[in-house]
Amino acid sequence: MTMEPNAEPNAEANAEPDVLGLLERALSASCAASLRAAVKLGLADALGDTPSTAEDLAAAVGADPDALRRLLRSLTCYEVFTEDPEGRYVHTEVSRLLRTDAADALDQLVLWMTEPWTWELWGRLDESVRSGKDVFVDLHGREFFEQVHVAWPESAAVFDRAMTQASRQSAAAVAAVLPLSGARTVADIGGGQGFLLASLLEHHPDVRGVLFDRPDVVAGADARLRDGGALAERVRLVAGDCREEIPADVDTYVFKNILGMNDEDAVVVLANLVKAAPAGAGVVIVENFVDDGPGQRFSTAMDLRMLLTVGGRKHTRDGLLGLVERAGLVVHDVTPVNSYQHMIVAATPA
Ligand SMILES: C[S@@+](CC[C@H](N)C(=O)[O-])C[C@H]1O[C@@H](n2cnc3c(N)ncnc32)[C@H](O)[C@@H]1O
């Protein structure tokens, strides 16, 4: 018997497995760590509008030139900085967002996403997936927000600044589409330091506002909302826990990126709203959906982070609508706010 050579090689059998594709993903913590290092070193500020060498940048930020070149080389693989033909580094659209003087700076959000305590949580994701619960309380003995505020004040400060940066990114888009016609008072529940509320009040000069958040967050409210601030006379700052109470006497309530706590608590919060609010009050919920195309890598990663930290989630569109209806709200509409966020427009029962 003679063996004929195989004339048509089997493409499938010969295809090289995507080893790099897998290993790059397995090492993707290095991308997060490199971004954090860039922020901690102040690299984006050190690199001005003209190209710089790794040596010049190293001198400017006080780093080892060889190690900094290696960091820059890794970051350029993710389009954070790029290298010109002379081997000098220049900004990209992405690295410009790390400049602290940029109006749309996101440096604090990068720090918040990569705080030192986050790394231990990610290593225990399998435990959360087995149990369906957070690992945070088990690790630290306190609920997430309590631990951040009580034990990690520097992280708490990063968080507040990060939320303001996140709000700044979307505040104009939200303020432009928020249905506030006819409203006399708007409350931002879990409104952070009030950047969005301040933007809404600036947009709608006849509307009054309520900023509701945890006591330590409200204490650091946006200067425009505090005593002596340009909007202070039109604002009430209310410290509290929305799982226990929601302010009354408000025409429109805004919940932006706050219903990711566990579903039972989210329904309690919305049911508190139904109890406290006047009949027919407007309710606007702004969220990232995990089944939303363009923002899906981001929202699914945030979904897992919320599982780890608070046993919470980023919802699918139908999942969130289900909670809203379970709490007794009447849904009118769901519309996009921007390329990665949606707005559910609802009301308390008439
Ligand atoms: C992800 S941040 C969103 C902040 C802001 N709405 C935004 O979109 O930028 C969640 C906010 O909810 C607040 N928060 C969390 N749990 C809360 C609770 N039980 N009662 C009141 N505020 C709460 C946090 O302090 C934080 O400011």
How would you portray this structure in words?
This protein has about 350 residues and is of the alpha/beta class. The protein folds into two domains: about 5-105, Winged helix-like DNA-binding domain superfamily/Winged helix DNA-binding domain (Arc Repressor Mutant, subunit A, Orthogonal Bundle), CATH 1.10.10.10; about 165-345, Vaccinia Virus protein VP39 (Rossmann fold), CATH 3.40.50.150. The chain contains 18 helices and nine strands. The strands form two sheets. Strands 5-4-3-6-7-9-8 form a seven-stranded mixed sheet, sandwiched between helices. The protein has a two-stranded antiparallel sheet with strand order 1-2. Helix 16 (about 265-275) links the parallel strand 6 and strand 7. Helix 3 (about 30-40) packs across helix 8 (about 105-115) and helix 13 (about 155-175) packs parallel to helix 14. The longest helix has 25 residues, at about 155-175. The radius of gyration is 24 Å and the shape is globular. The termini are far apart. The mean pLDDT is about 95.
Shape: globular
**Strand elements, count:** 9
Helical content stands at: 40-55%
Characterize the main sheet: 7 strands, mixed
What is the CATH fold-level name of the largest domain?
Rossmann fold
Structural class designation: alpha/beta
Report the CATH superfamily of the largest domain: Vaccinia Virus protein VP39
Order of helices and strands: HHHHHHEEHHHHHHHEHEHEEHEHHEE
| Sheet with the most strands: spatial strand order | 5-4-3-6-7-9-8
Distinct small molecules bound, one entry per kind: S-adenosylmethionine
Please report the number of helical segments.
18
CATH architect. name of the largest domain: 3-Layer(aba) Sandwich
**Runs with pLDDT <50, length 5+?**
none
